[in-house]
Amino acid sequence: MKVHLIRASGYPLEDFNNVLNLLRKHRGSIEFVPSEPIVLPDSERFKTYDTEWEFEKKEQPPLAKLSTDNNKLANYNISFPHKEKVHTWRQLFGICKDFRKNKNIAKEDHVMLLTNESNEHNWFGSYDESLKNYFIQTNNWSYYFGNDLDSRFPIAYEVAAWILRSMMFRSQVETLNALHKEPRGCMMDFCVKKPQIILKMRTGDLCQDCMNILTNRDVNRVQARELFTIMDGIRGNLLFRQRSILLMENSRLEVRGLSKRVYLTDLGDLEINLNPKERALFLLYLNHPEGIMRSHLVDHKVELRTYYAMFSQQASNQLIDEAISRLTDVTDNNMNEVMARIRAKFRQCVGSQQFEDYSIMATPEGTHKIRLNRELVKFIQ
């Protein structure tokens, strides 16, 4: 099975690659194929949400009638009334169909559009009547779950779940009529209140009724198993992240290959995308658990330059030397700027309560150091 993932140009490449890595973590017979970015056509449709309940509510598409619940949920990030541009489902599926035609995609392949653009019915994702063309919405996740939930998890979950639904049902209408009106912690919960999706992710499973539907279908068992494995992995990583905050348990960190890229293996193999200068400084401090005083950084200039020269795209040795001289000059603020960027990237990935364990932080003794337990650190060639 091939699943072509289309990245809309508004969806950041770094986030897209993190979702792709999560889906590819357990490789098997399902191949996830990334596409070149595309620009969505402009939409003239706007939608105004007068209340937070309206914004958090999934609408009923005209294909089926589902019950709704009018409970109101808390809002933290968006003021109301809130107006945003939306695309119709027909527009979003049309992009998938055009992609198929332009790229000569096989009829049996799946095509998924990952987009930051909102949609007319306010769904996280859906598929068309062919059950082969999909959209997955990638924005607004922090509104529902706060900044401490990595958006990779729900997006990857939606990718796997919609493929599994395409194996369970024969049409859109059949799919919609099978949705659960009341949440069960099942993949087929409708989640009219959109934050309820977290319950489905924590279970990563089907209820017995839905399992019976899947069992009675002539589906590829190997592929179904792979999709459950992806969902189980998302569940496990989500629970690790939540428990790590309570237990103050850190993820293992791996530095891989000649390019020394940095990954947090217990958080879905999440890559910390450090630029060459950030990576060079991070590796220097990772290699010196005792810490280094700011004024003594110049004493490690050779080691720092060696790292930077490995990663940098600078065209000459002179430019490399100038960059390292700025970084080690106590009268220049460049080191503080680089450290601040490193902290910001770890904060985004592990949350505000734990980012300091992975970052280069000042100590009462006057040094800077990375306090992560080095037993959690592994270098892989």
Please tell me about this protein's structure:
The radius of gyration is 23 Å and the shape is elongated. It folds into two domains: 2-246, Collagenase (Catalytic Domain); 253-380, no CATH class. The chain has 381 residues and is of the alpha/beta class. The strands form four sheets. A five-stranded mixed β-sheet has the order 2-1-5-8-7, with helices on both faces. A hairpin with a 5-residue loop joins strand 10 and strand 11. It is built from 14 helices and 15 strands.
CATH architectural category of the largest domain: 3-Layer(aba) Sandwich
What's the pLDDT, averaged over the residues? Answer: 87
Q: State the CATH topology of the largest domain.
A: Collagenase (Catalytic Domain)
Radius of gyration: 23 Å
Instruction: Please indicate the count of domains.
Output: 2
The number of helical runs is 14
Order of strands across the biggest sheet?
2-1-5-8-7
CATH homologous superfamily grouping of the largest domain: Collagenase (Catalytic Domain)
Residues in helix, %: 40-55%
Order of helices and strands: EHEEHEHEEEEHHHHHHEEEHEHHHHEEE
The major β-sheet equals: 5 strands, mixed
Question: What can be said about this structure in brief?
Answer:
With 381 residues, the chain is of the alpha/beta class.
Show the helix and strand layout.
Elements: E1 2-7, H1 13-23, E2 31-34, E3 46-49, H2 52-56, E4 82-87, H3 89-103, E5 110-115, E6 118-119, E7 125-127, E8 133-137, H4 141-145, H5 152-168, H6 172-178, H7 197-203, H8 208-216, H9 221-247, E9 253-256, E10 261-264, E11 270-272, H10 276-286, E12 292-293, H11 301-311, H12 317-328, H13 334-350, H14 355-358, E13 361-362, E14 367-369, E15 377-380
Parallel strand pairs: 1-2, 1-5, 4-6, 5-8, 9-15
Antiparallel strand pairs: 3-4, 7-8, 9-10, 10-11, 12-14, 13-14
